[in-house]
Amino acid sequence: MLELISESTPLFIVIVFAFSLLIGSFLNVVIHRLPIMMEREWREQADELAKSPPEQELPEGRFDLAAPRSRCPECGSLITALQNIPVLSYLFLRGRCANCRAPISGRYPAVELMTALLAASCAWHFGAGWEALMAIVLTVSLVAIAMIDADTQLIPDSIVLPLMWLGLIMSLLHPVDASDTLFIAPKDAIVGAVAGYLSLWSVFWLFKLATGKDGMGYGDFKLLAALGAWLGWQQLPAIILLSAVVGVLINITMIAFRGQDRSKPVPFGPYLAAAGWIAMLWGETIRTSYLDLML
Known about the structure:
Elements: H1 2-7, H2 9-46, H3 88-92, H4 107-126, H5 130-152, H6 157-170, H7 186-211, H8 218-231, H9 236-258, H10 269-294
Helix pairs in contact: 2-4, 2-5, 4-5, 5-10, 6-7, 6-8, 7-8, 8-10, 9-10
C-alpha cells in the first residue's frame, strides 16, 4: 500500500486532502480552546496579585484540547461524531445545529477546507515523502497560528516554539550537496532563526523609541524565527516583503470598504504565516526572479 501511494502522486494528494480535512476539524478546536486555556493559566498565575474578577467568565473544570466534548454554544447539546464530519456535516445540516437549529459559523468548514487545500498543495509540490510530510506539519501549524492571532492577537508559545525547534532539528537531515530541498543546512537554519528574531526585534525597538508605542508583539519575532529555522536566512527578506505587501493591501481594503478603524491594532501573524507558506513552496523562484530583475 505504501509503495502504491509513493508511486502515485494523484493518489497521495487525494489521501492527504481527505486526512487534512480531519486535521482541519481538530484545528477548529485548537483555535477556539487554546487561547482560553492560555487565559486560564495566566489567571491562575496572577491570582495572588490580581483579585479582580476576570473580564469574561471562564469555563470551570477540565478544559483542554480533549475535554470537554464539543457542544452547541446556544443550546448546549453534544455534537455527535456524525455531526462532526468535516465540511460534509455542515452541508448536510445546512449550517445549523441539529437540535436547536441555531446557525453554525461558516468559518468551521472554511478552516477545514483551507487546511486540506493547502496540505494537498504541499503534497503536489513535494510529492510523496518526508518533505511533503514536514511541509504539511508546517502548514497546519501556520493555519492555527494565523487564525488564533487574527482572533486574539496572540501567538501561542506552545505552537511556535516547538515549531522553531523542529525546524532546527530538521536541518540535521539536510543531504550533502543538495540545494533544492526543504531540509536546509544547519548553518542556514541557525542563522535564519537568529536573524528572523532579531530583525523584527530591532524594528520593534526602533518604532518604540521613535513613537513610544509597541508596533508589534513578541510572538511575531518568534514566528519569524521559526520560519527562518525552517526555510533559512535567505528567505527572510522575501517573507518580510511579502507579509508587508499583503498586510498593506488587506488593511487598505478593510478601511476603504468596511470602514475599519485605522487606530485599531492589526495582527501581523497571519501575514507572516501566509508569506512563510508561499516562501516554502516558491521562495527560491521568487528570490531568483527578484535578483534577476534587480541585476
